[in-house]
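Fold these two proteins, one after the other.
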Amino acid sequence: MASSSVGRTTDPGRPPDREYSVAAAGTILMAGVIMIIAGAFHILQGLVALFDDQFYVVGTEYIYRFDVTSWGWTHLIGGVLLVFGGAALFRGAVWARILAVVLASLSAVMNFMWLPYYPLWGALIIVLDVVIIWAVLAHPRDLRTRGPF
C-alpha cells in the first residue's frame, strides 16, 4: 500500500523519508565536525614540527625516515585541506562527501607514516579518520533501496 502523504515512503514498514534526512544530516554534521577537529590536530602537529625540530624524536628501527620540517609542512597543508573539506561537508553535496573520504584516507596514510615520530598522536588521528570515513559512507539516505530489491 502506497501512502500519499508527503515525506512517506511507499513501503508501510519503512519510516518516513524525513527521518532518513534528519539522521543523514546528523551523520554528515558529525563527520564535518570531526574532520575540522582532525584538521586542527594536523595544523598543531605541523606547527610544532616547524617551530621545534627537536620535539619529535624517532627511533632507529623504522625503515622509513623523513625530515621533521618537511613533515611539518605536510601536516600544516593537510590540516588546512581537512578544515576546508570539513566545512564543505556541511553543504552535504556529493562532491564534498567524496572529497571527505579522499582527504581522510590520505590523512590516515600520512599519520601511519608519522607513527615513528609520535605513535599515540598518530594513532588517535587515524581513528578519527576512520570515523570520518564511516560517517560519510554510512549515510542513511544512500542505504535506502528503491523498488522491490
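Now the second one:
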Amino acid sequence: MEFEAINNFWTLIHDKVNSWMEAGVKHLPNMVVALIIVVVFAILARIASKVMSNILHRAFESKQIADLLSAIFKVIVFIAGVFIALEFLGLTGTVTSLLAGAGIIGLAIGFAFQDMTENLIAGIAMGVRKPFQIGDVIEAEGVFGTVKAINLRNTVIETFFGQLEIVPNKILFRNIVTNYTTTGERRIEVPVGISYADDVEHATEVIKDALKTKKFVSKEDEVEVFAEGFGDSSVNLLVWFWIDYPGHVGFMQARHEAVHLIHQTLTKNDILIPFPIRTLDFGAKGGEKLNTMLSSKEVASKSDSSNNKQSISE
C-alpha cells in the first residue's frame, strides 16, 4: 500500500514537471522575444536618458533637477518595455496587478512624505517656469538676498547681512516672489521735506537738474519729484530716479549719493530742510500768543488792584 502511494506521488510529480516542460518549450519563443524586448528597451532607456539629460542640463539651472527628470524618464522607458514583454507572454493579469500595486504604493508614499513631495514638485515646476535664476536678487516671505543654489527641495538665498537662508520650494511656489534682477533696472525713492516758506516748483527743478548729472541715473527723462503732502513742519517731496540693477553702483551707494546730492543742492539754493517746529497757540479760536495774553492779564490785574485801593479809601 505504501509503495503504491509513493508510486502515485512520483507519477504526479513527473506529470507536473512534464506539463511544465511542455509549456516552457511551447512558450520558449515568446520568452526569448520578451527577453529581447526587455534588453532593447533597457538600451533605449539608457540612450534616451543621456539625450534627455543633455537637453535638460541646457534648460535647467539646477543640475539635480535635470538629473532627476532624466532618471525618471529612463525608469519610465524601461518599465514600459517590461510591461510590453509581460503582455507578450500573455500575463495580462500580472501587468494589471503590478499597475494597481504601483498606484497604491505611490499613493501611500505621497501621503507619508507629503511635505517632501510638495517641495519636490514645486522645485521641478519652478525649474520649468524659471521665476528666478542663480545670481538673481529676490524677496519672498521676509527673505531678501541673492539666490545661491536651487535644489530639488529648497532654494539657498544669501541675505545682505551675510547669512544663508534655506527656503523650502513650496513657500516660493505658493507666495509672491519679487525678482529685482529680471528687468535689469530698479527705481529708488528718496523722501525729502522743504520749509513752507520755499517754492515747491523751484525745489523740484533744482533737484531734477542735479540728479541728471549723475552717471548712475539710467533714465534722465524719468527723474521725477512729486509733492507728497503736508507735514508738521515741511512740505514733503518724493524723489524718484532709476538705476541699472545690478550695475556698477549698488542700490545703497546710489541712494547715499542721491541723499548727499539733494542736501547739497537745497543748501546751495538756500532752500531749507526744516527740523520739527512747534508753535504754541493759547486762544480757543487761534491767533492768541503767550506774550499778548500775559500783557492782557497784567493790565487786568493792575486795574483790579487800583479799583480795590479806591474802594478801601472810600
